[in-house]
Amino acid sequence: MLISGIQKLTLLDFPGKTACTIFCYGCNFLCPFCHNALLVTEKAEEFISEEEIFSFLKKRQGILDGVCVTGGEPTLQKDLKDFLKRIKDMGFAVKLDTNGYRPDLLGELIDEGLCDYVAMDVKNTPEKYSLTVGKAIDTDKILRSISILKEGKIPCEFRTTVVREFHTEEDIKEIARLLKGGVPFFLQQFKDSGNLISDGLSAYSAEEMASLTEKAREIIPGTRLRES
Predict the structure, then answer these.
(1) Sign (positive/negative) of CA torsion 76, 61, 47, 72?
(2) In a domain, 186, yes or no
(3) What does the DSSP 8-state code read for residue 226?
(4) I need a labelling partner for 228 at 20 to 30 A (CA). Which of 10, 14, 34, 85 fits?
């Protein structure tokens, strides 16, 4: 596992649980609006060892409920299964954040009980996916991951970070139509962290985001707006 960082406490990342968040290095996308760009574009020279992570978790047994594993893109890590199993064996619940580009592995992690919650970033409509993620991709893989999560085997969510330069109102409605089926859907307002892959991006206003959320809610009741 290539681990670049850890947030030792979060009350927001794992619904209903107190947790820590582990940041994995590397990603197979180059989303211009990525707010963790250093995990994608910069060559890392130092990593946090797995033993340091598990030493920390041992001290948090009985204090934390869960562990969020995010990135970058965690499913690129070759030791991910073993890593998650060790976390589960310590009694923690696991939340996985993913871009959905490795559907076979995602399905295995769910079927083998190595995840308790999955949050999948849905970047855009299939037609605009490659533009939005900064490289040519096979959107069938995204659609397969969406289908896996819509099976409802474990709690999960879909979320879309809305960027003015990439998303129109019709895009949001099309994404909602694609995702409709019982899984919660969240819109996130883009924020410039100062650490993006590309410059020149902007956010919709709070009022515009509220309107986009209402449009999505007409298709997926319960769609919510969340700060990214």
Answers:
(1) positive
(2) no
(3) E
(4) 85
DSSP 143-186: HHHHHHHHT-SS-EEEEEEE-TTT--HHHHHHHHHHH-SSS-EE
The H-or-E segment that residue 68 falls in is: strand 66-70
Supply 59's token pair: 């001290």
User: pLDDT (tens digit, 9 = 90+) per residue, 111-147?
Assistant: 999 999 999 999 999 999 999 999 999 999 999 999 9
In a domain, 221, yes or no: no
CATH number at residue 117: 3.20.20.70
Q: How many domains does the chain have?
A: 1
**Is position 213 within any domain?**
no
Assess contact for 175 and 132: CB atoms under 8 A.
no
In a domain, 155, yes or no: yes
Query: CA dihedral defined by 194, 20, 154, 125, rounded to 10 degrees?
Result: 0
Q: How large is the greatest C-alpha to C-alpha distance in the chain, in angstroms?
A: 48
Q: Which residues constitute the domain of residue 51? A: 3-159+192-198
Question: Do 17 and 66 contact (CB within 8 A), yes or no?
Answer: yes
pTM for the full model?
A: 0.93
194 and 205 in contact (C-beta within 8 Å)?
A: no
Residue 13, CB-side half-sphere exposure with 13 Å CA sphere:
24
